[in-house]
Structures are given as C-alpha cells and as structure tokens.
Amino acid sequence: MSSEYAKQLGAKLRAIRTQQGLSLHGVEEKSQGRWKAVVVGSYERGDRAVTVQRLAELADFYGVPVQELLPGTTPGGAAEPPPKLVLDLERLAHVPQEKAGPLQRYAATIQSQRGDYNGKVLSIRQDDLRTLAVIYDQSPSVLTEQLISWGVLDADARRAVAHDEG
Predict the structure, then answer these.
(1) What is the signed CA dihedral for 70, 71, 72, 73, rounded to 10 degrees?
(2) Fewer Cβ neighbours under 10 Å: the N or C end of the chain?
(3) Domain 1-76, what fold?
(4) Cβ distance 9 to 46 under 8 Å?
(5) Quick one: CA dihedral 57, 62, 67, 71, positive or negative?
(6) 83-158 — its CATH code?
(7) Averaged over 121-146, what is the pLDDT?
(8) What percent of the chain has pLDDT above 70?
(9) pLDDT of amino acid 155
C-alpha cells in the first residue's frame, strides 16, 4: 500500500471516528479494548498498514460500509456518472459545412491534441459542449438538440446535459 493511499485511508478513518464523536481512547473504551487507541491512531496517521480483514471489522465497529472508508469513494456511494458525449465523426462529415464548420474545426483540434484519429467517433467533455455552445451562440441544451438532429450526437446526450445543468 502506498504511503499516500495509507494517509488517505487514515484520513477517512479519522473522519468517521470524529463524526461519531469518539476520541481514540473513546474507541478503545467503546470496543472494550478490542481496538487499542495506539493502533487506531497509527492507522489514521498512515503509519501502519491495515489488513482487509481488520478494515472490515473496523467498518463494522463504526457501523459504516467498508467502501465509505476507502479513498476515492464519495460519501453515500457514487452517483451514476452522466452519459458520455460522443460525436459521430462519420455523420459530422455529411453535415453541410455552413452548419457544422465550427464543430468540425473544434473536433479536429481535439483530435490533434489527443492524437486520436480513429475517424469514427470522438468523446467530448461537458466543458467542450459549453465552449461549443458559446461558439454557436446557443445554450448547451439547445446545441445538444441541434447536434442530435444532425445525427452527430446520440439522444442519450440529453441526459448528460440535463445532469450538467441540473
């Protein structure tokens, strides 16, 4: 376990303990000596590696799911990520230049920056869509509808935009 990961895990352990209003000695008392203050403190500082078994037992003691103690997880579980925005580059090539010119140039720039020349699809980020909306002088949701009507974005993109604007 990397020392950075151990420190992040320790910070999660400390946060759960303090949320429950427990001191290190309070943990030892409440657990009737099962969890020694010095051991829990060393886990929290990242000075001592905690086994999966011990982590599961500690999560059970605190009354939280194990994943709440792991670094990189969000409180309450991760929400479903919004759908990706994927441009269909083959269809984009068939949209008249006067309509799609700015989008074609933007997509070509992203491809160049990423070195991504598969020519079929291109994932774009929410920030890219907002930038394109400014270029087209439309809101992201209106531009999304336009791109769907051109056939270059899947209808699932509506959910991604609604998630971002929500």
Answers:
(1) 30
(2) C
(3) 434 Repressor (Amino-terminal Domain) (1.10.260)
(4) yes
(5) negative
(6) 1.10.10.1930
(7) 91
(8) 89
(9) 82
Specify the 3-state DSSP secondary structure of 15.
Answer: helix
Q: Domain locations in the chain?
A: 1-76, 83-158
CA distance 122 to 92: 11
pLDDT of residue 7: 87
Give the span between the Cα atoms of 56 and 77, in whole angstroms.
17
Cα 111–Cα 112–Cα 113 angle in degrees, nearest 5: 95
Residue 93: other Cβ atoms inside 10 A: 11
How far is 79 from 101, CA to CA, in rounded Å? 36
Q: d(Cα 24, Cα 142) in Å, to the nearest integer?
A: 55
* Rg, C-alpha atoms of the chain: 25
Backbone conformation region of residue 102, classed left if phi is above 0, alpha if psi is from -120 to 50, else beta:
alpha
**pLDDT tens-digit series, residues 19-34:** 888 999 999 999 999 9
